[in-house]
Amino acid sequence: MSYQLQPGAGFIFMKVGVHAQETLADIIARKQRELKDAGVSFWGYGGNTCHPTTKVQPFVSKLAASGQEVYLCMHEMVSKHWAEPVRAEEYSEDGVTWKKVPAPINVRGSRYALVLKSLEPTDFELSLGHTKVGIGLQEGRPGVEYIQGRVDKACLELTPGALVPPADDRVLKIGLAAALDAPYAVLLR
User: Fold this and answer.
1) Which of the two ends of the chain, N or C, has the fewest CB atoms closer than 10 A to its terminal CB?
2) What distance in Å separates the CA atoms of residue 138 and residue 142, rounded to the nearest whole number?
3) pLDDT digits (tens, 9 = 90+) for 24-80
4) What is the distance between the alpha carbons of residues 133 and 141, in angstroms, rounded to a whole number?
């Protein structure tokens, strides 16, 4: 995939690596099988910075309503996520109504999942100094200030100009991208 973000584009940014005792390469292979077998895949994660109902769904729905396809842009990092690889059995779009996770889909060790309709390697650089948080209490804050410490994911927008001086910028390699599919994110149990 030769995907490139355009100024004004909204996207989900996430650092990825080992998760629930599984290497990133193994996760990618499993997710590509799920896409082939089920036509959709769930990319599991945790943390409230991209909560499915309060952040991801409203952010992506707004962009999709304007005709924009929204992508998950992933930056590989060193991870030590060695939680038990327990498979989620149910998912919910709203936290009220729960459905069984389809048999071909295996999402493990996660509280939430993004709903993917594609997953492909890519190769481009993302300047976090040219991004801003797109939703929530931190809306408008430069991405380079927001993505640090334990914050490893966000709903971001690419800005036409730098929001921070070049010395304060951080450029990250995006090696994996996925197109999101409605309902965009779900809760798991």
Assistant:
1) C
2) 9
3) 999 999 999 999 999 999 999 998 999 999 999 999 999 999 999 999 999 999 887
4) 5
The per-residue pLDDT for range 79-129, each reduced to its tens digit, is 877 778 899 999 999 999 999 999 999 999 999 999 999 999 999 999 999
pLDDT the model gives residue 2:
55
Q: Which residues lie closer than 8 Å to 181 by C-beta, 6 or more apart? A: 40, 115, 116, 117
| Residue-wise pLDDT tens digits, 137-157 | 999 999 999 999 889 999 999
